[in-house]
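Input record (Table S2, row 546):
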Amino acid sequence: MDHEAKDFIRQRIEHDLAQGVLPAGVVTRFPPEPNGYLHIGHAKSICLNFGVAQEYGGSTFLRFDDTNPSKESDEFVQSIQADVAWLGFTWSTLTHASDYFEELYKFATDLINDGKAYVDSSSAQEIREQRGTLTEPGQNSPFRDRSVAENLDLFERMRAGEFADGEHVLRAKIDMSSPNINMRDPVLYRIRHVHHQRTGDKWCIYPMYDFTHCISDALEGITHSLCTLEFADHRPLYDWVLDNSNVNFHPPQIEFSRLGLEYTVMSKRLLHRLVEEKLVDGWDDPRMPTIAGLRRRGVTPAAIRDFCARVGVTKVDNRVEMNLLEFCIRKDLEDSARRGMGVLKPLKVTLTNWTGGDEILPGKWHGKDESLGERDMPFSGELYIEQDDFAIEPPKKWKRLSPGEMVRLRYGYIIRCDEHVCDDAGEVVELKCTYFPDSRSGSDTSGLKPKGVVHWVSAAHAVPVEIRSYNRLFRVPDPSATSFLEDINPDSLEILQGFVEPAIVAHEDTHFQFERQGYFCKDSKLPGVTIMEVSPRDGLQNEDAL
Ligand code: ATP
Ligand code: MG
Ligand code: MG
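Output record (magnesium ion complex):
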């Protein structure tokens, strides 16, 4: 990558490295709150934070921002670690904001001693009113001028558990007339009598994000604190806390755009609702934009990393097209996935002149990569082809089967459709065909030139599988945050009873391209039983199938 192509964050890091202001190298952190599963938006932040540390020989902390115990759980803590590792990144140190509770308390006490923080006994509603609006300045709290001694005493008793939730808060004493509402005496600590998944019942006061985050960054020596754009207005507060605390390091906060993706939602609040209201089958439902869902769907870590690299890092929020993610998924599997035969909607074919027993045909696992080898494909007089590969009245330029016409069975023989059998409802249920014994692929002397090639499996040998074909979870590219449930796509899951050739089931690989169909993977939860469609078929460029 040349210099011009580098994003503004990498340019900044290179500048800092050149200035010699980073004696310990680049240090970044990824700071998730353990209140949900990670989603592809988090992947962007992970790829950025871990990516720059890797590129410039630095290190990255994985820090759990666990200051809001009522919404956090160990299940989320575990899943986040698993997801970061699965994406291919290694943290230098695992920390928790709660590791610093004692130090944070000390820094808060120092602010009180310096006359820069006070205990406010106003209610949450009163504080909200005091802080004013964008057009109206704030009003001082009646408790703003409490003495240092009284503040220290009250703050100690808050910690000791003498007060109920909401009775008091600790606020920074900054400027109630600041045009930036974040600077109008923000709350630093609140009382919450709730059990914390790590510190248990040791604390009943918890520090707020704006106080915790910057101090944690400083204590860890984070050289570039990268966060999303909505925190730009918090930057003066980030700097104020560090300028007024006795920390020996002051990281710069640098904001970048949040990732949005079409046809899905990314906020954890909305994802929680999808799970809780059972609109999806858990956090790892393959339709979810979560890392766990994408993994179960069969998306590879390399595809997600490529996607994040292509999206890039800018200062402009936008919703990225789903097509880009799908492109990255196919691109990654294109070279690596073995090709095999899978029939999604089976139509029985009987070869009326077949007299032999079973035959074994060789088939390459990949048309362009000999090193992936071959597999044996059993062939017999009863086959399944795709229902869509037959038409009684074919459209113009039809390259598949129709009455009286011929096709080649991929790697096999040429067949001609002599008769189609319909059920009472008029649905075609079976084709009776003639095969041409001298037309076998590789030793074809028949001189016949059928227009098309179709995929097939041998009925007696094929393995029945449930195939889950996923569509977008939402019908619209930009589901509304307020009425997003109305935008849910009712047809996001289609379950098919299909067949795959036995070599696919027997092979240790999880991902395959079904010839002419797209990419599929064995379900990690129900291997051998369920096969997932990795990316939608439309848009698949599958030249080597023909
Ligand atoms: P939510 O609003 O869904 O709760 P969050 O930002 O509060 O998301 P965190 O767990 O705090 O979730 O996120 C951890 C890190 O991931 C933060 O640094 C945050 O900026 C980043 N992040 C979260 N969502 C996105 C996104 N859509 N695009 C880029 N970065 C993101
Ligand atoms: Mg959040
Ligand atoms: Mg957050």
